[in-house]
């Protein structure tokens, strides 16, 4: 792999922690990957290098790259992972030390929300607060110090959040379950409180490499420090691209690297190898509107970008223009996979999906956490969960009357009331079936469910799903549920997709583990699909495309209304804009609509800033 002098210097550096600070497209990820391969040449065992990526997709790409470079196999790189995935592997091995047992269940966001709502109900708190409370809890955990975080909340929010938090954690523990944040929390506890475990991993990981370091949160930082038994830490990042502050990431870890590691070497890369210089300069112009930022010089030797800003009458015209443009460019030889349509919020994707479909242009959604949250996918996965984890009340409650079997809410209450001690819904229902205390219809319905759950428990996941479909007549039910044949076809396609995903795993537990780790990885896609990418800006991080469309550039949308109150948040939005612009290699189109959902829409301040920067650059 070709490297510049600066990149090579970073790759070769040994003997102290190192940080590569550089703008987008300057080859940070490439440098990190090259360093991995170089360490192998120096006889470091690839299994003893921990390389942290931001998404599962990025981990996959890095592994593929490494395989090409070294001729090794996928399995030779077991520790090229996201924080969550690496921590989960550590936890699985040692969870008994924390009072858990295998198999662990990972709570999906559906499970989290249901559980929080129920607790809120029991504590007389309006369940409409549940989502806010859940994200507060999540931020508290990722802050690294829950109590301190809660203490700093306004009194009312605090008492409400704290009460729910404690009960929520109790339930998780009782169910031997984790949520996504607990994967990190518990790994930290494990490493902190169990010196022998810490020693094991300190000895194991001879080198630690971290990509996208600017978006590390406190907990991840703490885990990294606990794992680091030496000075072989290599981080790369760009403070201009810190865009996860809203989720508790803390760019100060990045900025204070030199203080934390006084003997650290700082490397800077200035040349952008991705984009044409006009795009690089435009991106610099955009970020220039932010007050707080490190200074960086970025340039590119490539010239001749196409940059265009456009405003349309409404969202339909905007989407139609984008779709037509995509078709025209495709005809001139640009592959669909080299094009991306980026938006600030996922809700915007609809219009573009529709316009692309109309022109029969293939597309794929990047970062659509939607898949595992779709009704049909949740239904089927909850069957699998209920089979694998009889204590999972959320899953059992969802499937017990889906498809309808005459087991309505009052019956569910009855089952719930019959529980004693730590008994789960499912256990309670099983006892009622055994004791024959139910009406004929309910008895038969439950019996059928239990026969099904018992049958699929040991099956490979794809077979298990097929069995569920066959025995419950699920597709017939789904057809009745859908309002149009079109909707049914889409949902049916998702079920096929699920069968395919499931067929890649051998055991039910492997499958569920994977689903839950990926499901929560909000920036993942199903990988390898064909077509134009549709993506949130967040999910586009680290990726590159010949041609990029940034759409919906209107006030309230981008910057997002929730982030318009403080300068601090507004700057994060502007960094997001910087991320978006720097995805483009040679073509950049930026669009807005004057009216959206029949309401007047105001052009985004970023739109004007872009125009201003373009004027200055004479583009
Ligand atoms: N020395 C080089 N010579 C040629 N191409 C390079 C070189 N370094 C990087 N590239 C290419 O430039 C592009 C951007 O590199 P990379 O994705 O590693 O940048 P990055 O700094 O990680 O970007 P981002 O900040 O967006 O994550 C890639 O296509 C990469 O292969
Ligand atoms: Mg990168």
UniProtKB/TrEMBL annotation:
SUPFAM superfamilies, per the entry: P-loop containing nucleoside triphosphate hydrolases (SSF52540)
Parts forming coiled coils: none
Superkingdom, natural source: Bacteria
Entry binding sites for ATP: 22-29
The protein's Enzyme Commission number: 5.6.2.4
Enzymatic reactions: ATP + H2O = ADP + phosphate + H(+); Couples ATP hydrolysis with the unwinding of duplex DNA by translocating in the 3'-5' direction
Record keywords: ATP-binding, DNA-binding, Helicase, Hydrolase, Isomerase, Nucleotide-binding
Any GO BP annotation: recombinational repair
InterPro entries membership: DExx_box_DNA_helicase_dom_sf, DNA_helicase_UvrD-like_C, DNA_helicase_UvrD/REP, P-loop_NTPase, UvrD-like_ATP-bd
Entry-linked CDD domains: DEXQc_UvrD
Residue ranges of domain UvrD-like helicase ATP-binding in the record: 1-276
UvrD-like helicase C-terminal domain ranges (all copies): 277-542
A molecular function GO annotation: ATP hydrolysis activity
Record-linked Gene3D superfamilies: 1.10.10.160, P-loop containing nucleotide triphosphate hydrolases, PCRA, domain 4
Family that this chain belongs to: Belongs to the helicase family. UvrD subfamily.
Protein name stated in the entry: DNA 3'-5' helicase
């Amino acid at each position: 792999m070709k490297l510049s002098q600066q990149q090579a210097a970073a790759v070769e550096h040994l003997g102290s922690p190192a940080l590569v600070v550089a703008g987008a497209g300057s080859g940070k990820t490439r440098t990190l990957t090259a360093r991995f391969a170089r360490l192998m040449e120096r006889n470091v065992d690839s299994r003893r290098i921990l390389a942290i990526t931001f998404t599962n997709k990025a981990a996959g790409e890095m592994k593929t790259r490494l395989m090409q470079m070294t001729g090794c196999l996928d399995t030779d790189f077991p520790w090229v992972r996201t924080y969550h995935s690496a921590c989960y592997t550590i936890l699985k091995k040692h969870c008994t030390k924390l009072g858990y047992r295998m198999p662990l269940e990972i709570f999906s966001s559906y499970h989290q929300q249901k559980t929080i709502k129920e607790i809120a109900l029991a504590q007389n708190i309006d369940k409409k607060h549940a989502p806010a409370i859940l994200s507060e809890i999540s931020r508290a955990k990722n802050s690294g110090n829950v109590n301190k975080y809660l203490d700093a909340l306004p009194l009312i929010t605090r008492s409400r959040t704290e009460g729910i938090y404690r009960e929520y954690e109790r339930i998780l523990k009782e169910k031997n379950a984790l949520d996504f944040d607990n994967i990190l929390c518990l790994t930290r506890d494990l490493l902190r409180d169990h010196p022998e475990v810490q020693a094991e991993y300190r000895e194991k990981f001879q080198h630690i490499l971290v990509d996208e370091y600017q978006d590390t949160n406190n907990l991840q930082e703490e885990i990294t420090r606990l794992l680091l038994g030496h000075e072989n830490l290599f981080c790369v990042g760009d403070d201009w691209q810190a865009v996860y502050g809203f989720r508790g990431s803390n760019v100060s870890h990045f900025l204070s690297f030199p203080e934390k590691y006084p003997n650290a070497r700082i490397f800077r890369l200035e040349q952008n190898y991705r984009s044409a210089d006009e795009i690089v300069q435009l991106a610099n112009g955009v970020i220039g509107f932010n007050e707080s930022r490190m200074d960086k010089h970025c340039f590119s030797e490539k010239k001749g970008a196409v940059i265009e800003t456009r405003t349309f009458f409404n969202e339909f015209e905007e989407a139609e223009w984008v779709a037509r443009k995509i078709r025209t460019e495709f005809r001139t030889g640009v592959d669909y996979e080299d094009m991306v349509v980026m938006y600030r919020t996922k809700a915007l994707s609809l219009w573009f999906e529709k316009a692309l479909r109309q022109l029969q242009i293939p597309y794929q959604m990047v970062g659509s956490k939607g898949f595992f949250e779709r009704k049909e996918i949740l239904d089927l996965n909850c069957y699998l969960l209920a089979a694998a984890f009889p204590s999972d009340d959320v899953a059992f409650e969802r499937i017990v009357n889906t498809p309808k079997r005459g087991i309505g809410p009052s019956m569910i209450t009855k089952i719930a009331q019959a529980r004693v001690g730590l008994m789960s819904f499912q256990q309670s229902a099983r006892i009622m079936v055994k004791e024959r205390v139910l009406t004929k219809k309910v008895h038969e319905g439950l019996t059928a469910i239990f026969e099904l759950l018992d049958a699929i428990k040991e099956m490979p996941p794809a077979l298990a799903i097929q069995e569920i479909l066959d025995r419950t007549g699920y597709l017939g039910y789904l057809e009745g549920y859908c309002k149009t044949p079109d909707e049914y076809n889409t949902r049916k396609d998702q079920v096929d997709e699920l069968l395919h995903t499931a067929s890649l795993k051998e055991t039910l537990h492997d499958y569920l583990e994977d689903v839950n780790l990926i499901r929560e990885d909000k920036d993942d896609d199903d990988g390898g699909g064909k077509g134009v990418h549709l993506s949130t800006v967040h999910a586009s991080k680290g990726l590159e495309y010949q041609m990029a469309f940034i759409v919906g550039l209107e006030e309230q949308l981008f910057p997002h209304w929730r982030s318009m109150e403080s300068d601090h948040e507004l700057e994060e939005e502007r960094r997001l804009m910087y991320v978006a612009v720097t995805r483009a290699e040679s073509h950049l189109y930026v669009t807005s609509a004057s009216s959206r959902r029949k309401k007047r829409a105001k052009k985004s301040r970023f739109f004007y800033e872009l125009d201003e920067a373009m004027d200055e650059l004479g583009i």
